[in-house]
Design goal:
Two copies of one chain form a homodimer. With about 350 residues, the first copy, chain A, is an alpha/beta fold. Chain A contains 14 helices and twelve strands. In chain A, helix 11 packs parallel to helix 12. Chains A and B meet through helix 4, helix 5, strand 2, helix 8 and helix 13 of A and helix 4, helix 5, strand 2, helix 8 and helix 13 of B. Chains A, B: InterPro entries: HTH_LacI (IPR000843), Lambda_DNA-bd_dom_sf (IPR010982), Peripla_BP_I (IPR028082), SBP_2_dom (IPR025997).
Amino acid sequence: MNPGKKITIKDIAKKSGLSAGTVDRVLHNRGEVSEKSKAKIRKTLEELHYEPNLIASSLSAKKTYLFITLIPSYNPGDYWEEVDKGIDRVMAEIAKFNVFVEKRYFNQFDAQSFFSAIDDLENAECNGVIFSPILRDKSLIFTARMKQRQIPVVFIDSQIDNADFLAYFGQPSFQSGYVGAKTLMLQVKDNQNVLLFRTLRKGFIGANQTLQRQEGFLSYLSEYRPNVSVINIELQAGNPDLNELLMRQAFDVRNNVGAAVIFNSTAYNIADFLERNDIQNVVLLGYDSLERNVHYLKQGQISVLISQRPEYQSYNAIKAMFNYVVLKQPVNHINYMPIDLLYKENVDFYTHYKQY
Amino acid sequence: MNPGKKITIKDIAKKSGLSAGTVDRVLHNRGEVSEKSKAKIRKTLEELHYEPNLIASSLSAKKTYLFITLIPSYNPGDYWEEVDKGIDRVMAEIAKFNVFVEKRYFNQFDAQSFFSAIDDLENAECNGVIFSPILRDKSLIFTARMKQRQIPVVFIDSQIDNADFLAYFGQPSFQSGYVGAKTLMLQVKDNQNVLLFRTLRKGFIGANQTLQRQEGFLSYLSEYRPNVSVINIELQAGNPDLNELLMRQAFDVRNNVGAAVIFNSTAYNIADFLERNDIQNVVLLGYDSLERNVHYLKQGQISVLISQRPEYQSYNAIKAMFNYVVLKQPVNHINYMPIDLLYKENVDFYTHYKQY
């Protein structure tokens, strides 16, 4: 592209070998055009780095759109705060195109709170829903209902197979457990044991995502380190006294512990235990670069963190919804986030990085 | 922010506790405002996720800007192709604001080509220069000259201390060598040796960046693995026969090689040698996720790759120039890219990831 040169319909017609009328019909989504011609024009647009003239069309159309997001509520420093930041950032960017976002929340420790939020959403007037489908059955019914209403649904953070969703944005969970095992086990001997922590929440079956991470982790062990033994410990959400006792038993020297892992974002609790009890020779794998986790990564109690760019899960999810609903562009169905590996030596450059 | 609500000067004044007139002067960069008030307003803008109304101002102003980029020319699949992609992407985004980018190239294997390109740039009419300062002295003279002309200069990929640049976008090189050593040495025993490959280019002193990576690597070894020995091998750019001979000598069994590293993007050459000679028990660290490197990472000849999001180096650099020149916003001086660690188990999710 030369400086000063704008791409015209004529340019596109010339390069694609089609008529200006056909190009115009495709760009404005009207009239009938063969799939073959559409594909040709799409290819040409890509080659020319064409962007539809959003400004002109948004200023002339005056149509407004509303998307609704539904994610867990959170305390400062929690995982979901980052997801919420991504929503804020995209809101600021798309408001000028008359596209608005209404943010809703539920209590992730209370199934009933999720059920009510979903019931409200079923009848809400909007052009798209972006949400975290934390409970499978309710989410399946919801997406079916939204399909009837022709309102697209985008999943973030966890995915439900066989549901009618437009797109999913989140980590490839099985693989993130598998990679976690690889990085952790580089530092563990065959005669040492691995502690595998889970957190049980009342009235909830385990989150799909952490279960898949666990499967990936165990799959790596059985493939590459079959001689290593795993000891399972079930912590209970909201019961710190019990958990303290369970950790004390688990890290007993007689257990010959070489490593520990927890698949949700609360590795900082285990790290805190290791620090208070001055336990030095255990390598700990955790998930998500929360400030509290990063603190213990830098201090050495956490050995490696796996992160998944939570801010971009929501940012990309809403941008995809925008592209689909407003710009009528196709959207990828499954959009995996990268599996980012953080040691104390590279974590700062990851968390301080600012995308322009 | 509620749906449908636009942020007004009144909102900002109310929240910051300053007058609407003061807010207006700051937003439009005119008149005198105390640093304290400016800071207050900047903080308020951040809290409100304020974006200046780019559309209105670009449509009304009709002013055009030209930035010039200067990077090495490349073959398909080379490192610099990714940097160039980032330039293309940002060009497509900012053209609608009447900001254009002229792309220039030099031959990185010919110092004279860099000198001439810089000479041409010194007198070019433009509003900003984004370039890779591959040779120190010439780049220092150039930035001083541009400072006289009041044209801002942004460095990408490598940095020159004491030069007058607006901003730098690239990897923290020392630290990326240091982290590389950590990941590599997890797989190497104390009685094994490490091959450290360099590539000499005629008429060039070593690139600043690879030298710094090497320093970081050796610093980690002397700190944590003082018993491991390093064997240095100097390959020659453009002399494959000699290099084949040097690699044959280096990987001789009598050298008891446990690991190898090369700090530029050509690990694939060493991986290719390992594959052809069926050498299995050497772990190899390379830099940059070129397709050829990723190929050998997946096959197993390369054990770990460190990547640095080259597309975002140029993308962010030009966006920063845009923010500074067009929007009159302050810009961070040093902008380090993350140090991304890639194993065969997570590389696909990294290279296939698409930022919306």
